[in-house]
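Example record used in the benchmark description.
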Amino acid sequence: MRLEWSEAADADRWDLFSFVELDSPRTAAMLDNRLVAGALRLTEFPYSGRIGRVVDTRELVVTGTPYIAIYITAPDAVVILRVLHAAQAWPP
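Model output (structure tokens):
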């Protein structure tokens, strides 16, 4: 199973990295590494995230961070739709 990132998820990831990097490049890299590692795990265990608050989605709580990756599963791919802080209002 392959991993895909939506444009919105890519933008979320970049915004998160850029914001945290201003204060701590090391922390920004750690957050991104954890996010990518969690997303890659989904290619082997696509249903390991909790059932999402939006129909047909799932949510991966990214270990050791306050972030959630919202995703969908397709027959041959996991698609990350958004990356949000747990305190953000979701669904919109």
